[in-house]
Amino acid sequence: MEKTEAILIRELGGPEVLKLETVDLPEPGPGEAQVEHRAIGLNFIDVYFRTGLYKAPNGLPFIPGKEGAGVVVKVGEGVSGISVGDRVAYGTGDKAYSRRANIAARQLVKIPDGISFETAAAMMLKGMTAEYLLNRTFRVGPETVLLFHAAAGGVGLIAGQWAKALGATTIGTVGSAEKAALASAHGYDHVINYREEDFVSRVREITGGKGVDVVYDSVGKDTFPSSLDCLKLRGMWVSFGNSSGPVPPFEMALLSQKGSLFATRPTLFSYTSTPEELRACANALFDIVQTDKVRINIHQTYPLAEAGRAHRDLESRKTSGTTLLIP
């Protein structure tokens, strides 16, 4: 059996549990392709699995990571549409924190010419998340006024540009002056530094007291229930992450009290559950990136062996935009 290097989590905990080890790498099974990674995306969902907030499907130990890009070096039985030598990427896979991994072929998409491995790995999970949030969870258009928390994060920077390309009025929240400048350069019409201003009051001021049509919230505990107070009547609160901790349980009556609000907790997997949905989502992302309406900026890179340091910086909010691990 072949070997490869990977980050293996043997116990749940802090960034210190992320250790590079040599692990067995079997031949790809039926429906799998073996990918030699060239770049790996870092995402907050990786932290959730590391801490145990989200449960690893097969328990401990496990190799984290949902997003990567590389070259197909082997294919298993029954694989069609993917061949050895193809440049591929994925955003809903497993075991990305590795030099090589066997990935379900149905989760792979071919990378178009002109898009690098680094760009592909930087945008698949975050970019496809932006796609379903803006085009399907709530259909954003020229009449839309939206609020996006963590506007200088990986999803936020993509979503700001994409929403602006769709004609929306965009409001973003950030935690520093540097991140405010970054968000302003990536499609946000109004940027609120929540460390200096009350974002609810500022949103009401910007919207003339009306509130926004939709709030996109990946922060969780720290922005709840204030996010609801930013919405207009019958507005939608989209909770798609919890970087500050999970949203506490609440009574459904709260939604009626605050204006007959809608609330949803979507996941990328639910919006790409079929090969057709996955391809459509990925192709929409590739198309808008290739038109230069959305720029994918990689702000930090770390060697795979330093995944623990990357997690520590991510959790302490030292990072902005997209971060990559390089095998």
TrEMBL record:
InterPro entries: ADH-like_C (IPR013149), ADH-like_N (IPR013154), ER (IPR020843), GroES-like_sf (IPR011032), NAD(P)-bd_dom_sf (IPR036291), QOR-like (IPR047618). Residues 13-325 form the Enoyl reductase (ER) domain. Its EC number is 1.6.5.5. It is an enzyme of class 1 (oxidoreductase). Keywords: NADP, Oxidoreductase. GO terms for molecular function: mRNA 3'-UTR AU-rich region binding; NADPH binding; quinone reductase (NADPH) activity. Pfam families: ADH_N, ADH_zinc_N. One of its GO terms (cellular component) is cytosol. It comes from the Bacteria. SUPFAM superfamilies: GroES-like (SSF50129), NAD(P)-binding Rossmann-fold domains (SSF51735). This is NADPH2:quinone reductase.
